[in-house]
């Protein structure tokens, strides 16, 4: 049985556009074993850039 707090944390992260790092690592190992896996900090920066960095240099307005 999974931890309800961990499930809530994961759901909240997904709601704000922050995928789970452990899911990313499992995906990379299963589907792209030849590619390097980003560390947690690089993963966070990459996801933030993908979500916010493409428009107006990262600004909302």
How does this model look, in words?
The chain has helices spanning 4-15, 21-31, 40-52. It contains 3 helices and no strands. The chain has one domain (4-52). Helix content is 59%, strand content 0%. It has 61 residues and is an all-alpha fold. The mean pLDDT is 83. The relative contact order is 0.10. It holds the Pfam family Sel_put. This is YbdD/YjiX family protein.
Radius of gyration computed on alpha carbons: 14 Å
The ordered H/E elements are: HHH
Shape: flat
Query: Please, how many helices?
Result: 3
- Report the β-strand fraction as a percent range: under 5%
As residue ranges, the low-confidence spans are: none
DSSP E strands, number: 0
Helical residue percent band: 55-70%
Structural class: mainly alpha
- Our count of domains comes out at 1
Query: What is the end-to-end distance?
Result: 44 Å
InterPro entries: Sel_put
Organism: Novosphingobium clariflavum
Protein name: YbdD/YjiX family protein
């Amino acid at each position: 049985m999974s931890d309800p707090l961990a499930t809530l944390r994961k759901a909240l992260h997904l709601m704000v556009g922050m995928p789970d790092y452990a899911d990313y690592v499992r995906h990379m190992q299963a589907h792209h074993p030849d590619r390097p896996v980003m560390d947690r900090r690089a993963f966070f920066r990459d996801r933030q850039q993908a979500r916010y960095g493409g428009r107006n240099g990262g600004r909302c307005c």
